[in-house]
Amino acid sequence: MGQTDRIFSLQARHDQLETAINTENARPHPDDVEIHSLKKEKLRIKDEISELSPA
Q1: CA dihedral in degrees (19, 4, 37, 39; nearest 10)?
Q2: Contact at 8 Å (CB) between 41 and 17?
Q3: Strand ranges, E, within 1-55
Q4: Are 34 and 24 in contact (CB under 8 A)?
Q5: Neighbours of 17 (CB within 10 A)
Q6: What pLDDT is recorded for position 2?
Q7: Residue 24's CB: how many other CB atoms inside 10 A?
């Protein structure tokens, strides 16, 4: 997998996590632990994308 493909894959996962966070927040009783976990993963992916992206 090339670097561009990896970035594309990470961006897709980042978008999926955003959707999951929004879905969980829309529930009547959102699971704060799950939201925290999703946000942490989303931030990790954002950092990885930043490291891989050309300056």
Answers
A1: -60
A2: yes
A3: none
A4: yes
A5: 20
A6: 86
A7: 15
Q: Token pair of 12, please?
A: 């897709």
Q: What is the pLDDT of residue 54?
A: 79
Q: The tokens of 18 are what? A: 């955003």
Copy the structure tokens of residue 51.
């490291």
Contact (CB, 8 A) for 12 and 33: no
Structure tokens given for 38? 């999703």
Residues 6+ apart with CB under 8 A from 9: 1
Backbone angles phi, psi at 50, to 5 degrees: -60, -40
Both tokens of 5, joined, read: 């493909």
Give 9-37 pLDDT, tens digit per residue: 999 999 999 999 999 999 999 999 999 99
Provide the whole-model pTM.
0.88
